[in-house]
Amino acid sequence: MLSLETRSIIKATAPVLAQHGTTITTEFYRSLFEAHPELLNVFNHANQAKGRQQTALANTVYAAAVHIDNLETILPSVVQIAHKHVSLGIVPEQYPIVGEYLLKAIKTVLGDAATPEIINAWAEAYGVIADVFISVEAGMYKKAEQQQNGWKLFKEFKVVGKVQESDAITSFYLQPADGSKVPAYKPGQYISVRVHIPGETYMMIRQYSLSKAADEESFRISVKRESDQDPNGKVSVYLHEQLEVGGTIEVTPPAGEFVLNEDRSTPVIMLAGGVGITPLMSMTERLLQSASAREITFLHAARSEKEAAFVKELQQLSASHEELTYQSFFSDTDNAFITRDVLAELPKSADIYVCGPVGFMESMIANLVALGFSEEQIHYEFFGPAMPVKALTTA
């Protein structure tokens, strides 16, 4: 339990963190990787290059400072981040290293303003917050390992199928290399894949949504090829161009909180932008397989039909299941965008699942909020570090 004095000091630093948080976390990652380059085997190089990881950590530290009197307030965010940590293989021994370099970064950026009292208070607070993460993650690791067909950390999987879904997206069917089955997972969850690309110094980890409903036989991930060869593109290009049937990659157990709520009977709306269709495919298949009576409306946006995955599959599912309505919106056609007028026709009692590029999601969520849909009805997931959505933070 943190003392009143410590909590008071932490709360007093919140405005400083709001102003300098990203500068602090940028310095943190720079010095951390300089001293411990082996951790580059864990962190996503693309998110580092784009500054997304730095911003996400700054937001987390700021939230901890604001809510230091009642850390239970940020528990949902802790759980979401813990899912990411477990899927990356973060272990308790790494937390003291992170704490050391986070405190050093605070001191470096703030200089003399970071008094011994402030540094000591944050050291104490970090220890408490780290213990919360370690405890939550220990429970997740235990659950993943003890479930049927489960395991902990990374396991070798073999590619048993490779299917081109569009000009940009290819699906990979994965089975455990040891011949075992795969565990059940919730519709919408993701796995991490770890690869060692020839010529690269460090291993690379990427998280991909599972794009079909659970069965015991295989996982399916559907990967967009990023052709620009920046850090974000290296893994996808490797998967598309070099990983063939019979090849192997390392995989973590399924994780993630962006999942279908199967306890409700409300209509369901899927709003998919580009490769954001992948978790929504898993959800849709699950609803249809479970003979749910829920009405499903699937609105699918992409640059063109050639780049859009699962169009024919969704058209066939819609034709054979009267509860599913499918509509596509391609930027190169007259029916180009999912507009506010389109969203206004949706059932007002629906649960809405949104996934796609950041701009697409912010547009969809802003329009939904403007139309009167509540935050509780709107479920969304970013690919990569969590980010605040303006429409929800200002509503």
Concise overview:
This protein has 13 helices and 11 strands.
Describe the structure.
The radius of gyration is 22 Å and the shape is globular. Helix 1 crosses helix 7 (116-146) and helix 2 crosses helix 4. Strand 8 (296-302), helix 10 and strand 9 form a beta-alpha-beta unit. The protein folds into 3 domains: 4-146, Globins (Globin-like), CATH 1.10.490; 155-251, Elongation Factor Tu (Ef-tu), domain 3, CATH 2.40.30; 268-393, Rossmann fold (3-Layer(aba) Sandwich), CATH 3.40.50. The chain starts with a helix and ends with a helix. The chain has helices spanning 4-12, 14-35, 45-50, 52-66, 75-88, 94-110, 116-146, 231-241, 277-289, 311-320, 340-343, 358-370, 390-393, and strands at residues 155-164, 169-176, 190-195, 204-209, 219-224, 248-251, 268-273, 296-302, 324-330, 351-355, 378-381. With 395 residues, it is an alpha/beta fold. The strands form 2 sheets. It has a 6-stranded antiparallel beta sheet. Strands 9-8-7-10-11 form a 5-stranded parallel beta sheet, sandwiched between helices.
